[in-house]
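Researcher: Sequence recovery benchmark, item below. Answer with residues only.
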């Protein structure tokens, strides 16, 4: 109960803490909304649902010294956090852009085959693999400029391990 009371009026919410809170909230929201594992959950919906953001506003208001202070802090919080959600997603999406223009292959194709396909449920591209036998080889992703990303893949009977080289 003490922790709840502290959240609602017991925090000295200075400007430095507010800005740090806005940055953390924006980046966390962007990342949670992008993770495939959070798809169709409340974690993914945090970027678009207003309930959590209303709670953030209430926490700011309850820990401000005056009406003017709370209004300014809410304004600055949302001015920082909301664009940061978009910018973080934009930076991550453009720095990890992966599509069907990539080539993917196993160095030892006796183990099986791999290909790139679009997955409707993920709304993104993925590498699909079909293994025929156990062994160790390299899985190579090559972009249109010839840049390669190599992963060692250890295929076992019912599983496999991937390690980036």
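Model:
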């Amino acid at each position: 109960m003490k922790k709840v009371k502290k959240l609602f009026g017991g925090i000295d919410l200075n400007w430095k803490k507010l800005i740090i809170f806005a940055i953390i909230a924006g980046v966390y929201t962007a990342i949670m909304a992008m993770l495939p594992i959070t798809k169709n959950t409340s974690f993914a919906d945090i970027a678009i649902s207003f309930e959590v953001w209303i709670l953030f506003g209430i926490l700011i208001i309850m820990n401000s010294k005056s009406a003017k202070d709370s209004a300014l802090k809410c304004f600055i919080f949302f001015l920082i956090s909301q664009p940061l959600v978009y910018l973080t997603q934009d930076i991550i999406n453009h720095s990890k852009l992966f599509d069907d223009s990539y080539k993917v292959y196993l160095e030892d194709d006796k183990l099986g085959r791999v290909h790139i396909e679009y997955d409707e449920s993920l709304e993104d591209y993925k590498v699909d693999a079909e293994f025929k036998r156990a062994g160790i080889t390299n899985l190579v992703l090559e972009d249109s400029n010839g840049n390669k990303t190599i992963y060692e893949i250890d295929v076992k009977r019912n599983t496999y391990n991937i390690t980036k080289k």
